[in-house]
Design brief:
The protein is an alpha+beta fold. It is 23% helix and 26% strand. α6 crosses α8. The longest helix has 16 residues.
Length: 417
């Protein structure tokens, strides 16, 4: 009987490979069309790879833990001519050749020297893509302590050795160089590798490498942080009396959206000599997942009430935490809200995504004494810190101060959110 290959599909824009997490079927199993055969992990989510037709699994060509590029053959299914015709599947050619998988231009690999990464931005007119040289993540699991000086100049020989090891300049920034001006030499690098040989390590997941990549690119900009306390009692009371108990973070998402609708330049982008203003107030929510963070994006938050956003918020956050978030909700945000207070942190300095200029962090709630002129005594008040990190090229501290004041104003009247 003819054999039909199961090819690694393109699971998202700019995704060129995925890691096989689980095999969901075995050789000899009878399968149906669209049945999941593999569970794979990309740098964005966990997804399933399905069959294009029914039949019997003839062979499985990948194993758990293996990285598989888009378009690669993962398995072969024996199928009848009738099933192939019914499903529209493409069998192997007469000479055993594999049918080509159509891929978007962003997914087709380019030569290493010219490899590109694409960040999505909103502009006043339409979405555009800005390409930048991709920084390859560390893949050897080397420890990366910080705070020690390293070299800015890397010799061609040093660069070649780093490429061989999958290292970036930031991965060796902690090594004290013995060369001229503190330059890290090949001998310094090899000495370090010998020193850490045998240290406990683990492979960095796609998610961890994606986060590392994003943070490296974010840090190429002058990022500043500012914060202030806000009273949480109005939110706590409103949520307690609300029949659907909105997530606490959703209050901040809505308040930030309304404040940015008044001052969209605070989330603008500096491109050359122009500052681009967002065309829509799309806000992301940082959701903790195993070994990383996912950021589901909620669209036009300023145009929908708190009650109207509850279902979308709950669904997107749940899917993100299970790493099943639809690709259309994974990009396009102009700012993100992260609730680090859930980890007991009262203050932090969150980092905006490379494609965003602003992130708002929410700290843990605590009781503090506040003087009341009405009763002429200190009264206990629930308080939390909000902190925003922003691209200082685009906006200054005064503008951010006014933005945070507006966020605080909206949060004191949650019934109007």
């Amino acid at each position: 009987m003819p054999k039909v290959p199961i090819l690694m599909p393109q699971l998202g824009e700019s995704i060129a490979e995925a890691t096989v997490l689980r095999l969901l079927a075995a050789v000899g199993d009878t399968v149906e069309a669209d049945q999941e055969i593999f569970e794979v992990e990309t740098n964005k989510a966990t997804m399933g790879v399905t069959t294009s037709c029914g039949g019997v699994i003839d062979s499985i060509l990948v194993q758990e833990g293996q990285d598989v590029v888009v378009g690669a053959n993962m398995a072969l299914i024996e199928a009848t001519e009738e099933e192939i015709e019914r499903s529209g599947a493409t069998p192997l050619g007469a000479d055993g050749t594999i049918p080509q998988l159509e891929m978007s231009p962003e997914t087709v690999p380019e030569p290493a020297a010219g490899k590109k990464d694409h960040a999505h931005f909103q502009t006043s007119g339409e979405y555009i893509e800005e390409s930048s040289l991709k920084v390859q993540a560390s893949v050897r699991g080397l420890p990366v302590p910080v705070g020690m000086k390293g070299a800015h100049y890397l010799s061609p020989r040093m660069k070649a050795r780093m490429d061989e090891l999958g290292l970036t300049a930031s991965d060796i920034a902690f090594i004290v160089g013995s060369g001229a001006g503190g330059r890290v030499t090949i001998d310094d690098l090899e000495s370090f590798l010998e020193y850490v040989e045998g240290w406990p390590s683990r492979p960095a997941s796609h998610m961890r490498r994606s986060v590392a990549d994003s943070m490296r690119r974010s840090w190429t900009r002058p990022i500043a942080s500012a914060g202030r306390p806000i009273y949480m009692d109005p939110i706590i009371t409103h949520r307690r009396n609300h029949p659907r108990k909105p997530g606490v973070t959703l209050y901040f998402v809505r308040a930030l959206a309304l404040a940015l609708a008044e001052s969209p330049e605070c989330a603008g982008y500096l491109v050359g000599g122009r500052i681009l203003t967002p065309k829509a107030i799309d806000i992301g929510v940082a959701a903790r997942v195993a070994d990383g963070v996912m950021v589901p994006v909620m669209r036009s938050v300023n145009e929908h009430s708190l009650d109207e956003l509850i279902d979308e918020y709950n669904k997107n956050v749940a899917q993100a935490r299970n790493r099943r978030l639809d690709a259309k909700y994974q990009q396009g945000g102009i700012a993100t809200v992260t609730n680090f207070g859930g980890f007991g942190l009262t203050f932090a300095s969150p980092m905006p995504l490379p494609s965003e200029s602003l992130i708002l962090g929410v700290g843990a709630v605590s009781k503090v004494p506040v003087w009341s002129e009405e009763v002429e005594a200190f009264i206990p008040v629930s308080q939390a810190n909000i902190v925003t990190s922003f691209d200082h090229r685009v906006v200054d501290g005064g503008d951010i101060g006014r933005l945070l004041q507006r966020v605080a104003d909206y949060l004191q009247r949650p019934e109007y959110l």
